[in-house]
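request received
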Amino acid sequence: MKASTSIFYGLITAIVILFLLVYFFPSLDDFNLKNPSWNGITNFSRISKAQPIKKIADITYSVPLLSETILYLIGPSKPFTPEELSSLTGYLKGGGTLILADDFGSGNAILQELGLNTRFSGHLLIDPLFRNKASTLPKIVNLSPELKNITALVFNYATTLNIDPLEIDILASSSSYSYTDSNLNQKWDKEETKGPFPVIGKIEYGEGKLYLISDSSIFINSMLNKEDNKKLIALLTKNKKSFIDTFHWQEARLSKLKSAQLSLYQLFSPIEARYSLLFLFIALIVWLRVRQKKARASEELQETLAEHPHWDKEILKILEKGREK
Amino acid sequence: MRPLPGEEARDTRYEQRDTCYRGERVRDTRYEQQDTRYAKRSEAYLVRALLITIITALLFSLPSLAFEPKSPQIPRHKNPDEITEEKIAPLEFFALYGTFMDLMTRQNWDLASSLLQEASSIYIPENLADIFDRFNESLPEIIQELRNTKNHLDIATILMAQARIDETDEEVKKALASLAKTGKDLKELDTLTKELAGAIGLSPELIMKEGEKLKELVKNFYLTTLQLNEDIEEKNKLPSTFLEISAEEEELIVGSPLKIYGKLTEANTALSGKDITLFLEEERASITSTEEDGSFTFIIDTPLLYKPTIKAYTAYLPQGEDAAKYAPSFSNALSLKLVYYLPLIEASYEEPAYPGLPFEIKGHLSLAYAPLKEYPLEVIGFNQRLELSTDEKGEFVTQLAPPPKTTLKKSIVKISTPPRGIIAPSSLTLAIPLTYKIPSVALDTPSIVFSAFSFSLQGKLTLDGQILKEPTIKVITGENEYSISSLEGENFAAEATFPLSATTGWQNIIVSVTPWESWIASVTQENRVLVINPIMLIPFAAILTLLVGVSRKKKKKIRKAEEEPQGVLTPQTTKKPETKKEKLLPDILRAYEEAVERVSKITDKMITPSQTTREYSEEVKKPLKEAYPSFKALSLMVEKFLYARGLEKDEENKFLQYYEEFTRILQRFDSSNNVKQGRSLRGTK
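response:
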C-alpha cells in the first residue's frame, strides 16, 4: 500500500467516524425534538405526540378536517415567508388550532399577517415574588377557569402580551408584583411598567383558534416538570392530532448535519432509490474485483518478466488467460 | 583406491561450488530477513500515516461541529438547574403582607383568603421554608376566627334588635370564645413575624406595624361584645310579657282567608293598645294592635305558597316608652297545612335530536286526571324560550332546533307551567341526546396505480336512502387534492393522480365528505392502493439489460470456442494475421510431441501435466543413453519457443538438425531393440 492510498483510506475512515459521531451524538439545539438535554423538547414531543412538519401545507395533506388538528409553533426564530404566512392564515380560517409560544422570536410577523393588533412585547418579564428560583422564572398564578385543573405555570425568560382587549380573551396573567425589565438590570426602574401583564391569550380567528403564550420555553425538558406546565399540553392538545413546526428554529452545525443525514436517509428510503443504490453497490464491487484481479495479474506478469526478461510478454498473457479458464 | 586423473580436480570444483552455494544460501537468508524487516517497517509507516490522517481530519472537523448559532441579546431561556437561587425580595414581600393585613382590617375575608392562597405560590428558599410554612398556616386560622367573631357579633346584634335576649347572650359568648383564640393566635403570629422579618432582612418594627392594624380590629370586636353584654343585662332587668296564638283552621287552601287569634299579657294582666307583628315563613306578614282585654285577630289571605306547610308566629316588640317598661316576647309557632293542585306535564319527542335540525316536542297537561285546557306553558332549551298554551284536550306541541355548531352530546329542555291561584307551578325536565347522522362512503378505486399517471375513482354516498345536497367532497392523493363539485344522485367520480414524488408502496386515497347540513357528520374514507413509481423501474430495467447482455456475451464466447480447433498446447487464436512464430508453432510442437511419444514408448515414462520439458528430459536421461543430448536440446528449444521470444532462423535449423539426429539415434535404437526382441522371441520358441 502506498502512502497516498493510506491517506485516502484515513480520510474515508475519518468521514465514516464523523458520520457515526453525527448520528449518535444528540443535538443540543434549543427546541430540538431529538435533544434530550435541558433545552430540548423530547418530553413535549412524547406527551403531545406531535408530528414534526417542515411546511404548514403538510397538515392539509394528511388530515382532511383542520378542526381536528393543533399546530405548535414554539419559539420560531427564522423569518416566515409570505407563502408560509398565507398558509398559516388559511390553516386558522379553516378551523385549525394554532399555539404560538414565543418571546423574542419572529412570532409577531404572524400576528401582523393575521391583521391582529396583539403583539409579543419583547420586554423581559420579571417577577421578584411569584417566581421559581429566580425572578426571570416567573410563576403565573392568575389563571382563567378555561385553564381548568391548572393552578400555576412557570415561565423561563418570558415576555408579555401587548393586547387589544377587543380581539383576545386573557387566559393567564402575571402577578401584580411583576414588571417588564427594559434595561435588563433585573431591577425595577421608574420608567418600567408594572404588572399584572397578560401572558396567555386566546383569539378566535375564522373557524380556528389562536393561542398566544408569551414564553417559548414553557415546553422545554427542564421546564415541563415545573408546576402544571405539563398539564397545559394535555389541556391544549385534547384529542386533536398535533403537529409541530420544525423549520423556524436556528440550527447548530451538528443539527444541520443531522438534518442532512436524515434527508439523505429519506432520499434513499423509497424503494426505487434503495434498489438503485443496491444496484450501484453491486456494480462497484464487481468493478473493484475485476480491477483488483487485473492489477494482480499485471503485477505477476511484471514480476515474471523481470525475472526472465527474454520471455515473451504476449505468450505469458495468453498462458495467463489459459490458466484462468 | 587412488582417484582417476581429473577426478580429483573435479571433486575440488564440486566442493568449491558447494561452498559457493552455501554462501549464496546464507546471503539469501540475510536478504530475506532484511526484506521482512523492510516490509514490517513499511507497514508500520503506513499504519502511522493512516492514523495521523484520521486524527488530523477529526481535529479539523470536530470543532466546527460545536458551532452554535448566535444567541440574541435576551436569551430565550436558561437552564433552571444552573440559575443561582435568588433571595426573597423583602420589599415585595412586605407589600404583599401589607395588602393582606389591609384586607383583614377591612374585614374582606374572602379576598384575604384568596390572597393568602396566592401567596403560597411565592418562592421560598429552602432555609426559610419551615418558618414560612408556620407563618402561612397560622394566618388562615386567624382569618377564620375573626370571621367567626364577626358573624357571632352580627347575629347577636340582630337578635338583640328582635329582643331575643337568650339567643343574643349565646352568640355573644361564642364571639368572646373566638376572640380569645384570635388573641392567642395573634401572639404567636407576632413571634413568627419577628423571626421571618429577621430572616428575609426586613425591619421587624415595620412588619409589626402592619400587625397593629389587626390588633385594633380585635379590640373593636371586643368592645362590641362588651356593649352587647351590657344591653343583655339591661333587658334582663325588665318585666317579661307573654304572647299566645291559635288558628281558626289548620288546613288552608292557598289564597283563602286565614284567621289567627291571640292574647298579650304581663303577669296575668292584659296589655291593650300594643302592636303585635305576624310572621309567616319568617317574613313580616301583618301588624295589628291588642284590644282592651289584650286580645288581637289577624285576617289575611293565605299566601300563594305551594308547599305542604307554613310556619306562623307573632311577636311583641315594645317601642318608644314601652321599650323601657316591658321586655319583648314571641308567641308559640303554628304549623299550617296548605292545600293546592299540582298539574301533571307529560311530554315526548323523537329521539335523538340532530344539531340544526328542528324536532317536535309533544305533550299533555292534566290536573287531577282532567285535561288542563288553554293553560300557559313555557319551554326553555337550546338557547330558546318558547311560550305556548294547551289546546282543548290539554295537549301541546312545539318545535325546537338545537344550534348547528354544538359540541354538546346532551341538552336540557325544561317545560314549565306558571302558578294560577290554587294551581301550583309545575315543571318537567328532559335530557335530550344530540347526535349526527353519519353518511356512508363506498369507494371504488384501482388496486394498483402509477405515480404521475391519472386514474379514475368512483364513489357512492348514502344516508338512509337520502341524497345529500351538494356536499364538499375532497379527494387527497399524496400531495394532490381534488374537489368534486357535482354528484349524480348518490354517485360521484373523479380523475386523480398521485404526484411523481409519491414513492412506491401502499398509500391511501383519502376522500373526505363535508355536508353543508349541520346535522350530518363529516366523514372520511380511506382506500389503500399500491402506488408504483415509474422511476423505480429504471434500476430493474438496467439490471435486466446488464444480465441479458452478459448472458449473450457468454453464449457468444462459448459458441466461438466450440467452433475453434482444439489442441493441447494450441494457444488462443486471434483474428490478427499469424506471425512467423505462430506459423511454426504446430510444426515444432508436433515434432516435439512425436519425439516425446517415441521416448515414452522406449522408456515407459509418460510426460506428466505438471512436468516441464526440461524436467521430463532429465527424467528419461538414463534410459535414453546416447539419444539424451539431442532430446535435451529439443526440450530446451521447445521451452524457449514456448516461453521466450521464439526461435531465430539458425535456431530453427539447429532444431531440425537435432530432430534428425534424435530420429537417427532412435532408429538405431529401434533396430537393436528389434534384434534383441527377435533373439528373445526365437529363444522362447
